[in-house]
Amino acid sequence: MLVTIVVPIYNSEKFLSRCLKSIQNQTYKNIEVIMVNDGSQDNSLKICLEFANKDSRFTVINKENGGVSSARNVGIEKANGEYINFIDPDDWIDNAMIERLYSTIKKYNSDISICNYVKEYVYNDEQKQLINVDRLIKTYDRIQALNEMLKPNSFKGFVWNKLFSLNLIKENKIKFDENINFCEDLLFCCETMLKAKKIVYDNSPFYHYFIHSNNITSGFNIKKISSLDAIEKIINLLDKSGVSILKKTYITYYMHMNISLLLNSIKINANKNVINQLKMNLFKYRLTEVRSKKIFLSCLLSRLSTKLTYFLWAGRGI
Questions:
Q1: Is residue 56 located within the same domain as residue 144?
Q2: In terms of Cα–Cα distance, which of 240, 230, 210, 202 is closest to 108?
Q3: Region 96-106: what's the mean pLDDT?
Q4: Whole-angstrom Cα distance, residue 174 to residue 182?
Q5: Which of 48, 113, 140, 270 could form a disulfide with 199 if both were Cys (CB 3.0 to 4.6 A apart)?
Q6: Is a pLDDT exceeding 50 seen at residue 130?
Q7: Which residues face 38 on adjacent strands?
Q8: C-alpha distance from residue 119 to each of 7, 28, 209, 212, 278 (Å)
């Protein structure tokens, strides 16, 4: 069966060749690689064309800059595979990743298969090889998987360590929200999992997530505020899908994210309108809907006195 791999690319010349080579060297050969150049201004397009000219499985789509969600959506529209995977251009994957994800999804007759990942750091020149772990495979229904994603050391709500049924995505008209800059992948994963009958997880760490200064997820970025929109949409989806049992879990995550954004916004002296909106968000949900005692107390204190909360946070008292 054909597997589609979508690579959204924007000014990624520094790491792109390594990423594409790791895809090219997959032990599972029946792949199509859709490289979506999202208006890059460096040599990314040139690198893409070099791979496309040498390997017929690689296709380049050149478009105006619209963001990673826009690029991924183009990949979904053009995909021909039975399954689809999304890989970020600054990361790389072990040779057996697609083969393992594919064999697992078929063996367990699931809609989504997931693998573990390894964090790589730019200051470490040594490329880590696949870590030897005792292989563990678990299957989840949609509620179990949605709950698992928010747990520490879980497979998380990333799209790059997952293989999705393309039919599931297209039948339900699921797309990445192009107005959200952070947690857009968590929203996408939640939408697909809500429609999935079975999800399977292989704890083998095949994906290598590369952390460097250009990562939107590294450090504080004002764009992270859009993550609140993503989480709020997930909470509404849970209501509509009849799985409100998870609402408190995601409300807790929302409040935790909001408090973190509020304190960091104060730290960098962000726009007052932004700070005021984050303060208002503290009252969006009832405190009785917050499951974590620590976040409950932080939210309560923030409601009473943001200044005191910031003072304690700056001194790492909370």
A1: yes
A2: 202
A3: 98
A4: 17
A5: 140
A6: no
A7: 63
A8: 19, 24, 5, 11, 30
Q: Give, in order, the Cα–Cα distances in Å from 81 to each of 37, 57, 217.
A: 20, 12, 29
pLDDT of 127 = 47
Domain finish residue from 185, 211, 237: 211
Count structural domains, the chain. 2
Q: In the numeric block, which tokens belong to residue 41?
A: 């201004």
As a whole number, mean pLDDT of residues 279-290 equals 95
Residue 41 included in any domain:
yes
Least confident segment among 124-128, 196-200, 218-222? 124-128
Reported confidence tier of residue 222, pLDDT bands at 50, 70, 90: confident
Write down which residue in 154, 188, 211 finishes a domain.
211
Do both 21 and 40 map to the same domain?
Answer: yes
Q: Which two tokens stand for residue 4?
A: 């589609």
CATH number of the domain that residue 159 is part of: 3.90.550.10
Single pTM value for the model: 0.92
Backbone angles phi, psi at 311, to 5 degrees: -60, -45
- d(C-alpha 37, C-alpha 8), whole Å: 6
Mean pLDDT, the chain, whole residue set: 92
Residues 6+ apart with CB under 8 A from 34: 4, 5, 6, 7, 59, 61, 74, 75, 78, 79
Q: Bridge-partner residues for 202, per DSSP?
A: 115, 137
For residue 231, give the nearest of 200, 256, 267, 213 by alpha carbon.
Answer: 256
Clarify whether residues 40 and 8 are in a common domain: yes
Q: What band does 211 get if pLDDT is binned at 50, 70 and 90?
A: confident
Q: Which two tokens stand for residue 196?
A: 């999935």
